[in-house]
Design a protein that fits this description.
Largest sheet: 8 strands, antiparallel
Oligomer: single chain
Order of helices and strands: HEEHEEEEHHHHHEEEHEHHEEEEH
């Protein structure tokens, strides 16, 4: 009874802290800022100069109309960067411009990054997707986890709760406050290790960052290397990703993060995301995300047979594909329009592999079009309540590149009504 009362008091205090944060410190987004926002554009392949200029125009319009403090994007094709752009401010108060090197919290796009590390380990035979995780990690803190597999964890079919369903009350409060610092992915399991499974593994789908956090602890045990170190040696260093890191680590290129509403902005409260590195606590630039996405087509980096396993939507025990068409650390959709751009249909149905992310004062989007080997990444340092208000902007910068790379994907422009005299 005493523990429950203490937990209730902590929850109420946490709620009060969050509520106070929402009520104080708002400033006018446009106050003292030049009408023309700083911008940077880099074209990596000269034959895409005109297309890049069109994409940059779209990026500027998106930043202005969407009132994003900063908006960055990068596009890669067939393993090569084509273009990167940045508009707006990394920090509003100092008017520090955003750049193509700007580093953002990437939220759940971290899951795709973690999938990349797992795919690397699988490629060399260190892990298998369908082996019980207790084979790799003998010190699992919850006996219900013994027979779970990495396939179930990475496809969110293991039965672990999400943040809202977590009945490990102390852990649930820590998850909400995001203040505790963890130095090891194993230690972060304390946040949910007393929570029961929601359903028998493999029988249902429930999206949860805890799945991927546990997978990272299993990976760490299997490779006998700390998770962040393995991520660095097996992903960042081979690909030259200078920005990919835990989001709480100091970086001269990290932007400030904001809450925005109706033309006003305020800095997001300070948080520590070390509790969720693998599932939502990493940071990166748009350029590095695009490079990472492109690396999935390099068979020397990730063999094609491994790529296909990670990109195949997973089936439940009843034989049906899960409700989100979730693969392993990625979603895989097939539809006749770019994500969040339903009003502008394409000429045919296309498939794309992707993962978005929402973090504390930041949003991220990484999408891969396997048929074209086209990769698009986008980041901002605020959160739109409707995710499509952010992600749709990526569709606007993608279209100019499709016009050059795959014009048959686009429908002919609708004729404009002529004036009648």
């Amino acid at each position: 009874m005493k523990k429950r009362l203490i937990t209730t008091a902590v929850v109420l205090l946490a709620g009060a802290v969050v509520a106070w944060d929402q009520l104080s410190g708002w400033t006018d987004l446009s106050a003292g800022l030049p009408a023309e926002k700083p911008a940077q554009s880099k074209v990596y392949q000269s034959e895409f100069q005109v297309t890049a200029e069109q994409a940059m125009i779209a990026l500027k319009q998106s930043q202005q109309q969407g009132q994003f403090p900063a908006l960055t994007a990068a596009v890669a094709w067939r393993g090569q960067l084509l273009w990167a752009g940045a508009v707006g401010y990394a920090d509003l108060e100092s008017q520090k411009p955003a750049s193509i090197e700007s580093q953002f919290r990437i939220g759940s796009t971290s899951k795709a990054v973690t999938a990349t590390a797992l795919a690397r380990a699988m490629a060399v035979g260190v892990i298998e997707l369908d082996t019980p995780i207790s084979r790799y990690k003998t010190d699992l803190p919850n006996s219900q986890w013994q027979d779970l597999t990495l396939r179930q964890l990475m496809s969110h079919t293991a039965g672990l709760p999400g943040y809202k369903e977590n009945t490990d009350w102390i852990g649930a409060v820590q998850t909400l406050l995001k203040q505790a610092e963890f130095h090891d992915v194993h230690d972060a399991l304390d946040l949910f290790d007393e929570s029961k499974l929601l359903y028998p593994a493999g029988t249902d789908f429930h999206y949860s960052s805890f799945d991927v956090n546990l997978a990272s602890a299993v990976l760490q045990s299997a490779v006998k290397t700390p998770f962040l170190q393995y991520l660095d040696t097996q992903v960042s260093q081979p690909l030259g990703l200078s920005s990919l890191a835990a989001s709480e680590l100091p970086s001269p290129h990290q932007v400030s993060f904001y809450t925005t509403h109706d033309g006003y902005a305020k800095k997001h409260r300070e948080v520590n995301l070390s509790q969720r590195w693998a599932g939502g606590g990493l940071a990166a630039s748009s350029v590095d995300l695009a490079v990472l996405g492109s690396a999935w087509f390099n068979s020397d980096f990730i063999p094609t047979v491994v790529q296909q396993q990670f990109w195949t939507p997973q089936k439940l025990s009843n034989g049906e594909v899960n409700e989100q068409s979730y693969a392993l650390g990625w979603r895989n959709f097939s539809q006749n329009y770019l994500f969040c751009d339903k009003d502008n249909p394409l000429s045919r149905t296309i498939s794309f592999v992707h993962h978005g992310g929402v973090s504390s004062g930041a949003q991220s989007w990484l999408v891969i079009y396997p048929e074209l080997q086209l990769v698009v990444a986008m980041n901002t340092n605020t959160v739109k309540e409707n995710y499509c208000d952010f992600a749709k902007q990526a569709a606007l910068i993608t279209r100019p590149f499709l016009q050059q790379i795959a014009p048959d994907w686009l429908l002919p422009a609708k004729p404009q009504d002529s004036d009648k005299g």
